[in-house]
Amino acid sequence: MKKLISGLLVLSALAINVPTVSANAENSESMQGSETTHIQQRIDLNSATVEQLISLPGVGQSKAKAIVKYREEVGPFLEVAQLTQVKGIGEKMLSKIERYVSVK
């Protein structure tokens, strides 16, 4: 009887831990895959469309339009940090998206 109970305890412990480990491994892999895609395909701030800019984390339609409007009024971006001059984009937002954009 003790062997049966200890065996069930071991199996239940494994059953509880296995889905958690599996889910974490899947999430980690999918995050790495999407991050790799963004790193390999940085969006050029000087030629990006509103639709491309919306794909950036935390950038909605209004911020994307503000980036394009800034570019049209002021001229091309000289560096990524210049994004903080766009209305609605501060240092916090810049830190979220700077690894996904470039200036060519």
Task: Describe this structure as you would to a colleague.
- By secondary structure, the chain is mainly α.
- The protein contains four helices and two strands.
- A two-stranded parallel ribbon has the order 1-2.
Topology:
Layout: H1 2-40, E1 43-44, H2 50-54, H3 61-74, H4 91-97, E2 101-102
Parallel strand pairs: 1-2
What's this entry about, in short?
This protein has 104 residues and is mainly α. The chain is built from four helices and two strands.
Under CATH, the topology of the largest domain can be stated as DNA polymerase, domain 1
What structural class do helix, strand and pairing data support?
Answer: mainly alpha
Average residue pLDDT: 79
| Biggest sheet statistics | 2 strands, parallel
CATH superfamily of the largest domain: Photosystem II 12 kDa extrinsic protein
Radius of gyration: 23 Å
Strand portion: under 5%
CATH top-level class of the largest domain = Mainly Alpha
Number of contiguous helices: 4
The low-confidence runs, each spanning 5 or more residues with pLDDT under 50, are 17-32, 34-39
- The number of E-state strands comes to 2
Number of individual domains: 2
Please tell me the CATH architecture of the largest domain by its name.
Orthogonal Bundle
Give short descriptive properties of this protein.
two-stranded parallel sheet, DNA polymerase, domain 1, 4% strand, 104 residues, Competence_ComEA_HhH, 2 domains, Helix-hairpin-helix domain-containing protein, mainly alpha
